[in-house]
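We give the entry.
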Amino acid sequence: MKSGLHHVRIRGKFGVVYCLVRGSVGETYINAEGFSVWSGSSFSGTTPRHSARADYRKVRIVLGKCFSYILINDTTYATVTGAEPDEYGYKALYFGSGGDCIYSPFENYKSGEAKVDLSDTEFSLAANANFSYTGDRSVTLEKVQTRKTVHFKGSGICGEGSPSVQDGTEAINIIPIVFDQN
């Protein structure tokens, strides 16, 4: 198999995916778009101190018979600008994640941001796709979510928004997706 566009058949319906072949291993991607923003830190010792952004044009997916999902930590087709992320801030640049460590006394100040857009794909967000914002004294999450897109902004004293799904007692950082049946 060569790298490139391939047709897949799921439940009798065809869709298009991009296969990237590396040696004997193939990885499957879709042309989803989105961005993740880490807005930096106002606290010394917190990394990264400066803002960073990752813009995605393809995301890696795993297609299963019972469960399909986006692997949010694959940055193969992401363009990262700004600070070199590490430790806490790196996770905030995963697909569908965003955050900051900027203290603001204004409750409506939301600088961490992320967007997931599956509009141009044959996939939608699964019913159990969850996007939440956590952190020390995090403020209210401002979120707009449909079956094809999610866009959120949030902030906190080291607050972070990220996708997760409950797997028993553990939250795992993936975005569950379903193949559109239309």
